[in-house]
């Protein structure tokens, strides 16, 4: 086990220095957390946009978990030191003679022979443990005198490319058009966390020496060394899987209003109001168009037009208080002379009481309301061009 070399006095000094800063922040965070939990609304069903983000994260998590398994087809091969239980200072001939026992027919493969030709010094073995066999045997411009050349060959394809692919997934699942507003709230935080993972990975790859950072027994040559390349290649997708799983949980509890609920901002409320208004105007326009089409059809059809004319003649006669000359809906024969409903005694009495204000109807206020309604409907018609 690696000793950190930090004494209890150092830890105590750090706690004394940071406690006055961290404790009030922790208390405020706890209080705000309680307020958020107590004021959250009822949970709702998962929106379709957030469901798309969760589906992407599910498949990404499953993909990274499969990549982290040591028996997957793309997993790196086990280190020759671990496979043969050899020490870091084991002679090359002895090491590869042991390796041949694990190969079919007790014969080394072409890649083993090429790797054997590169195992010329302790530095080459360190490069093998740090960057893997492909970098040691495949780099044409790298030299053992300058280990940074191997690092430059290793970083773009083995470190940066996986993190770039992971950041594309994070950007997709936090995109507002694809995942919705709730998932987009986490975009900055998820991006910073993903970049932090990349920085940590780069720091480990650039600074860690698999031999110098190993236990003393490995440095002394009594135990086989472990391969940093093998460990980090399997650990990286596992970290991605855990990261994406946490992202999925946060998006789910946010989208369903179970946690981290934030009321819509004023801009969002205005946008929602404008959207509702546009929907209402679109519906009204559709209804007006349908009414225009219906009216046009009635005017062009002789039977329907005659019935419409008969209806309006009846309405006019009833409004004027005269007997109706035709029956509604019957344009072939005139109706019998009947007394208008407006001339009945009860109707006349009720109208007289209403006009006198005895029925609880304010005729003046009703007239003003009718005038306002007419002015609102016909607003702008006087200025319209013919």
UniProtKB/TrEMBL annotation:
Source species: Aspergillus tanneri
PANTHER family with a match to the protein in the record: CHORISMATE SYNTHASE PROTEIN (PTHR39470:SF1), CHROMOSOME 10, WHOLE GENOME SHOTGUN SEQUENCE (PTHR39470)
Keywords: Membrane, Transmembrane, Transmembrane helix
Chain intervals for the UniProt region annotation (Disordered): 321-341
Entry's transmembrane regions: 6-30, 51-71, 153-174, 186-205, 234-255
Superkingdom of origin: Eukaryota
Record protein name field: Uncharacterized protein
